[in-house]
Amino acid sequence: MSASRQALLIRGITDRVRSAAVRAGFFQSEPAVSEDVSGGTFPGAVDSPAGVESGSGERTEDHPSADKVSPGREETVDDPRRGDEGEFGFLPLQAKYRLIRHIGEGSFGTVFQAFPVAAPHQSVAIKFFAYHSTRWAQLQAEVKRLADLDGVAGIVRLLEVEADADPPYFVMRYAEGGSLADRLKRGPLPADELSRLASLLATALAGVHARGIVHCDLKPGNILLDAAGGPLLADFGQAQLVGEDAPALGTLFYMPPDQADPARRLPDPRWDVYAFGAVLHALATGGPPHAADTVRAAMDRTRSLTGRLRAYREQLLAAPPPTGHHGKCGGLAGVIDRCLARDPAERFPDAAAVVAALPGG
Question: Among residues of the chain, what percentage have pLDDT more than 70?
Answer without folding.
Answer: 70
